[in-house]
Design goal:
This protein is of the alpha/beta class and 229 residues long. 41% of the residues lie in helices and 22% in strands. The strands form three sheets. It has a five-stranded parallel beta sheet with strand order 2-1-3-4-5, with helices on both faces. The radius of gyration is 18 Å and the shape is globular. It starts with 6 loop residues before the first strand and ends with a strand.
């Protein structure tokens, strides 16, 4: 059982799934709240301020993708670790989830023990680093602030979702070397995380929208390289 109670919001229109997940998460020491659709989920998130949201994709009134988009656009909520749980296996659903800033995507049926292990691993990866250990990284006109997950490009400030920031930091720390998508997934997302290689492309495209095309190069048929003079 975890020592400090972390808060998890469960959003799903299936009451049996909510009951199953709530029981298992509470037994592990997590504090939980539930909501039966995306609209209510947003309202509960604003009140509960969870550390993580587990959200179904297909729901009435407001689906998970739309609710996730609204959450990630909210300055008070965008830091929340967002995992989608869905029975849909189409790649476009997964891409849509990561497009709006999701951190993970898990297909149903959900195995509680495996899900809890994944949740604990996610919290461990996101444990805050001591501020004293953080220094800005400067690459030409690109300034990376590791304390507040922002970057500055030609004096324009951007706040990056954590996974985009982690991916950019990975490239900056490993310049002038070509990495395959599989290697990037393993290094940035870790083992046991169900995401496709297309996820790497989506995140890199979103990073390029902010920093331009000059830093991260596509090596056709191989992968990507962060170019540094």
């Amino acid at each position: 059982m975890i020592e400090s109670s972390l808060k998890i919001l469960l959003v799903d229109d299936d009451p049996d799934i909510l009951e199953l997940l709530e029981y298992n998460l509470n037994r592990e020491g997590f504090l939980t709240r539930t909501a039966e659709n995306g609209k209510i989920g947003i309202q509960v998130a604003e009140e509960f301020m969870p550390d993580m949201i587990l959200m179904d994709v297909m729901m009435p009134i407001m689906d998970g993708i739309e609710a996730g988009r609204i959450i990630k656009q909210n300055k008070l909520l965008k830091h929340i670790y967002l995992i989608f749980l869905t029975a849909r296996t189409e790649e476009f659903s997964e891409v849509a989830a990561f497009e709006i800033g999701a951190n993970d995507y898990i297909t149903k049926p959900v195995k509680p023990r495996a899900l809890i292990s994944r949740i604990k691993a996610a919290f461990q990866r996101n444990t805050p680093i001591e501020v004293m250990d953080l220094e800005n990284i400067v690459e030409d006109e690109l300034i990376i602030n590791r304390q507040n997950y922002t970057i500055s490009v030609k004096d324009v400030l951007y706040a990056l979702p954590k996974k985009e920031f982690d991916l950019l930091l990975f490239f900056v720390n490993n310049p002038n070397k070509v990495y395959t998508r599989e290697e990037i997934l393993l290094s940035v997302w870790g083992r046991g995380v169900h995401v496709t290689e297309r996820t790497v492309d989506v995140h890199i495209r979103k990073i390029r929208e902010k920093i331009g095309e000059d830093y991260i190069k596509t090596i056709k048929g191989v992968g990507y390289l962060f170019f540094k003079n």
